[in-house]
From TrEMBL:
Protein's name according to its UniProt entry: TetR/AcrR family transcriptional regulator
Entries under Pfam families matching the protein: TetR_N (PF00440)
Keyword set includes Transmembrane: no
PROSITE patterns in alphabetical order: HTH_TETR_2
Amino acid sequence: MTVPTGRRERKKAATRQKIADAALRLFLEHGYDTVGIRDVAAEADVAVTTLFSHFASKEALVFEQDENFEQRLTQAVTGRAPHEPLIPALHREIQALVRHCTADSAAPIWHMIDTSPALRRYEESMRLRHAEALATAIAADPDLTRTTTACRAIARFAIDAFSLAREAADPQAAVDETFHMIEAAWEATGPSPDAPETASPE
């Protein structure tokens, strides 16, 4: 995520983080369903309107790194070195994201998400949105000559690799295994090799 540079931007970022921290603390202590928006606003010492200026919904409070996650995925495409292949760049970024989300400190948060139907639905819609943003970044790269369908499919596979790894006994191995298949699928969608030239008739 872009680091705020101006005083106003830094203040907004600090307020947003304070709200997210307060929400997570209350959710983990008392349960997601029993805590209301007003409870979070009071805990963070902000007005409800201020809370909603930073977060569109109660579910969004749990996924406060949503925007950062999406930016990291798209930047894995747009910010990779010249001529660096796409799939290894995505593989590396997904591995980093999985390491972060499978740390011991994240376990209570994911348990809360997994046991809340509302949060699971939100997570699913978020994954679809991330996949579309990633597909758009892939399709916009002039060096990656693939159809729109291929770009969307590969993007969804990459997002699913994250989800599958999070639930696996060995997350890093799950990412590697899934990306082995993604690499094969990406190669299969590439342009066909040029046919060998035939000799001209004399």
